[in-house]
C-alpha cells in the first residue's frame, strides 16, 4: 500500500492533518474527496494504534500519547511512549496510569518499564545532552485478542532505523493527542527530518501539552513504519522537535522487555534416533563463512562461536497480517579481530552464509514454526518469493554422515551449510531446526 501519495491531503473525520514546513503547520482542506475510502482506512489504522495516556505523579492529572508497535510478543501488547510520561524529574513513577482508546474506552495499566539510562539521568544538573536519546519506555498490556481491533500497531524495519541516513528519507509524520488537555482529537504533522543520529530532529509547531510519546513514522516499502518516539516539543514556532531514535540498542531493549526474539541462543538441526549429536550453525575464529559444529548440547555450551541474536528485524503493521522477518546477528567472541562483521547474509547461489558489517533487507529470513512438535522447531526460509510461484529457498545443515567415533577423535567442524527449494526432497541435510 502506497500511503495515499504520502498522505498529502487532509485526514477525514476527527483526525487533523498538518504540514510543518519551516516555522509552522498549515491546515489544508480535503481537495481529493475521491480518496475518502482510502483515507478512512488510514484513519482507522491510526486511531486504533495511537492512544491517549492519563497519569499523575501524586498531584495534578497529566496527559501524553503512546502507540502500539507490532512486536511478536506472545505475552504482551506493547505501547511505546516517552519516558517522562512514566517517571517525573524527581524520580516519582506514574500513578493511576490509564490508556484511553479511541471511543473513550479506558484501561488501567499495571506494568510498565522505563529506559534505565533515562532514569539514571534524572535529577542531575546539568542534564547530559544525551538524555533525550533514552527518553522512552513501554507499557505492557496482557495479550488480549478481544481487544485486537483497538491495539493494531505500527511496523518497524531495523535495517532502516540503524542506517545513519535512514536510507535517504527526508520527511516524517508525527501523530499524537496534543490539541488541548484531555482532547481526543488526533493530530498528524508532516515534517522534514533535520537531524540524525541517536536522536531525530524535525520541525513542529509551538509547544502543545500531550504530544510527548507520539510516534515519528514514515512510509517505507508501502507500510507505516516507526523510526522514533517524540519527547521534546519546541517552546516557540520554527524550532525543532526532538525524539528518541529507535536504534539497535533501543530495539534490543524493547525486545528483551517484551520477550520478542531470541538472544544469545544456538541454532541447530537436532539429532534423531540414529544420531546422538546436534548440528550447530557456527562461525570459526576470524572466519567470515559459516560452518557447522557437531556435538551435544553440553559440548556446544562450552564453545564461544555458536551463539546468535535472532531478532524480529522487519515487523509489519498489525493490519498487514504478515509474520515478522528475522535477522541473525553472530555474537562474536572478544578475541575476534574484526568485531564489525556480525550480521549473517544468506547466499543460496554460492551455497554459503557469510558475515557482513551492514544489516540490509536481503538478510531477513522467515522462521516458520513446525506444528505438532513438543519442542518448538522451525523452518528457515529466505523471504524473497520466486516469480515462478515457488516457495523460495530454505536453509539445510548437514553432518556429512559423521558418527560418534568421528566426533570422539575431534572431527566436529566442517562446511555443512547448503540451501534447497522449500520442501524439496532428496536434498542432503536437515531442514528442521531448534533454537536452544
UniProtKB/TrEMBL annotation:
Keywords: Signal
Protein name: Serine protease
Record organism: Trichoderma gamsii
Amino acid at each position: 500500500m502506497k500511503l495515499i501519495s504520502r498522505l498529502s491531503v487532509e485526514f477525514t473525520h476527527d483526525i487533523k492533518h498538518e504540514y510543518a514546513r519551516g516555522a509552522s503547520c498549515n491546515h489544508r482542506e480535503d481537495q481529493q474527496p475521491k480518496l475518502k475510502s482510502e483515507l478512512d482506512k488510514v484513519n482507522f489504522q491510526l486511531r486504533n494504534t495511537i492512544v491517549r495516556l492519563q497519569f499523575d505523579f501524586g498531584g495534578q492529572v497529566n496527559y501524553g500519547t503512546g502507540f502500539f508497535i507490532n512486536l511478536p510478543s506472545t505475552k504482551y501488547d506493547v505501547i511505546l511512549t516517552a519516558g517522562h510520561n512514566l517517571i517525573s524529574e524527581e524520580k516519582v513513577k506514574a500513578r493511576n496510569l490509564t490508556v484511553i482508546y479511541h471511543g473513550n474506552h479506558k484501561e488501567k495499566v499495571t506494568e510498565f518499564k522505563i529506559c534505565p539510562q533515562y532514569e539514571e539521568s534524572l535529577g542531575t544538573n546539568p542534564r547530559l545532552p544525551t538524555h533525550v536519546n533514552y527518553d522512552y519506555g513501554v507499557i505492557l498490556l496482557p495479550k488480549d485478542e478481544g481487544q485486537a481491533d483497538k491495539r493494531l500497531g505500527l511496523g518497524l524495519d531495523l535495517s532502516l532505523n540503524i542506517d545513519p541516513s535512514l536510507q535517504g528519507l527526508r520527511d516524517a509524520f508525527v501523530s499524537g493527542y496534543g490539541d488541548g488537555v484531555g482532547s481526543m482529537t488526533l493530530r498528524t504533522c508532516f515534517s522534514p527530518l533535520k537531524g540524525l543520529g541517536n536522536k531525530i530532529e524535525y520541525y513542529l509547531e509551538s509547544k502543545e501539552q500531550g504530544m510527548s510519546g507520539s510516534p515519528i513514522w514514515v512510509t517505507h516499502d508501502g507500510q507505516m513504519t516507526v523510526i522514533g518516539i517524540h519527547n521534546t516539543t519546541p517552546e516557540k514556532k520554527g524550532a525543532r522537535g526532538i525524539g528518541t531514535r529507535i536504534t539497535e540498542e533501543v530495539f534490543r531493549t524493547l525486545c528483551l522487555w517484551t520477550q520478542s526474539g531470541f538472544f544469545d541462543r544456538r541454532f541447530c538441526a537436532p539429532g534423531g534416533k540414529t544420531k546422538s549429536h546436534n548440528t550447530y550453525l557456527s562461525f570459526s575464529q576470524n572466519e567470515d563463512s559459516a560452518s557447522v559444529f557437531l556435538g551435544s548440547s553440553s559440548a556446544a555450551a562450552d564453545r564461544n562461536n555458536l551463539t546468535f541474536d535472532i531478532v524480529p528485524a522487519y515487523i509489519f503493521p498489525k493490519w498487514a497480517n504478515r509474520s515478522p522477518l528475522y535477522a541473525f546477528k553472530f555474537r562474536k567472541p572478544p578475541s575476534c579481530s574484526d568485531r564489525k562483521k556480525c550480521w549473517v547474509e544468506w547466499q543460496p547461489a554460492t551455497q554459503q552464509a557469510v558475515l557482513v558489517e551492514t544489516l540490509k533487507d536481503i538478510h531477513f529470513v522467515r522462521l516458520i514454526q513446525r506444528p505438532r512438535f513438543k519442542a518448538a522447531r522451525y523452518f528457515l526460509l529466505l523471504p524473497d518469493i520466486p516469480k515462478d510461484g515457488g516457495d523460495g529457498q530454505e536453509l539445510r545443515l548437514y553432518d556429512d554422515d559423521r558418527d560418534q567415533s568421528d566426533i570422539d577423535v575431534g572431527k566436529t567442524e566442517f562446511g555443512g551449510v547448503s540451501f534447497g527449494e522449500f520442501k524439496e526432497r532428496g536434498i542432503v541435510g536437515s531442514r528442521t531446526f531448534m533454537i536452544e
